[in-house]
Design brief:
The chain is α/β, with parallel strands linked by helices. Helices cover 49% and strands 15% of the residues.
């Protein structure tokens, strides 16, 4: 069996991975230092291992820890990994920031879930409300081989499909591609926009429109607008009045240089801030 050590196994992301990996085809060892995390693992029927024993024996070490800690943890554990082993990051920020130690004889891999699509149709109630993914809802993932051989990619992708199951499609991209997707697209751009949407909804409620009416109206219009713009309604388009309103909003809301968010130097600034 392939030996996998999950670092940060009792954290938010670590527990999600533990749930999917503990009864899988892989031989798992779990590392966690926080008392709350250790207790969460015990509730799942697993115990914390000794890093001095499991890191040197591991075929794969997964760093399921926040970006700001990956450099410290990687520099503590990677030197102890055996030659030919693989380190997996769950986000591109730390690798792009140069947080991983320079070891030519180990492989590095990154993978990240896309999360279940707003256009998913899930008949099962549990899957329907699995917004994050990794429980019952279908999702895609993105994978990048940072360094290593083709066999390393195959191992990392197979393990990632188990970590994030059920997975429908695994997209092979570069680490740079992954950095454009996150943080630039998904967080710096999309999360900022969605945060402003929530502020706008709160503002409309504050102006006296009944809250439930505001939420129902907003949810419905977001749904149809996404469907129109992203090809879910073939031949669909905004009305003439909506097109005029969009032009007004574009001038009032957005800076002329907003696309700079996706420039390489801007993405590195974002990554440095995160890490």
């Amino acid at each position: 069996m392939i030996k996998v050590t999950l670092v940060g196994a009792g954290g938010k992301m670590g527990c999600r991975l533990t749930d999917n990996l503990k009864d899988s085809e892989y031989e798992l060892s779990y590392l966690e230092i926080s008392p709350a995390g250790i207790e969460r693992l015990r509730q799942r029927g697993v115990e914390v291992a000794d890093p001095e024993e499991v890191i040197p024996a591991a075929d794969v070490v997964i760093f399921a820890v926040p970006d700001i800690y990956i450099k410290q943890i990687a520099h503590a554990y990677v030197p102890k990994m055996k030659s030919g082993a693989m380190g997996i990051c769950l986000d591109p920020a730390a690798p792009l920031a140069g947080a991983l130690p320079d070891r030519k004889d180990v492989a590095y891999f990154a993978s990240h879930p896309s999360h279940p699509s707003v256009f998913n149709w899930e008949a099962d109630e549990i899957a329907h409300f699995d917004y994050f993914g990794g429980i019952a809802a279908r999702q895609t993932i993105v994978c990048a081989l940072i360094q290593g051989e083709e066999k390393d990619y195959e191992l990392g992708e197979a393990l990632s499909k188990t970590m994030y199951a059920p997975v429908t499609v695994s997209h092979r991209i570069t680490l740079r591609d992954m950095g454009i997707l996150e943080p630039a697209l998904s967080e710096t751009f999309c999360a900022a926009l969605v945060s402003k949407m929530k502020e706008a909804v709160d503002l409309v409620v504050a102006k006296g429109v009944p809250k439930q009416a505001v939420y129902d109206f907003f949810y419905g219009h977001i749904n149809i607008e996404l469907a129109l713009l992203f090809g879910q309604l073939p031949g669909g388009q905004f009305s003439d009045a909506a097109e005029k309103a969009i032009k007004i909003g574009d001038k009032m809301i957005f800076r002329e240089d907003w696309k700079r968010v996706f420039d390489d130097d801007s993405i590195m600034e974002q990554i440095k801030a995160i890490t």
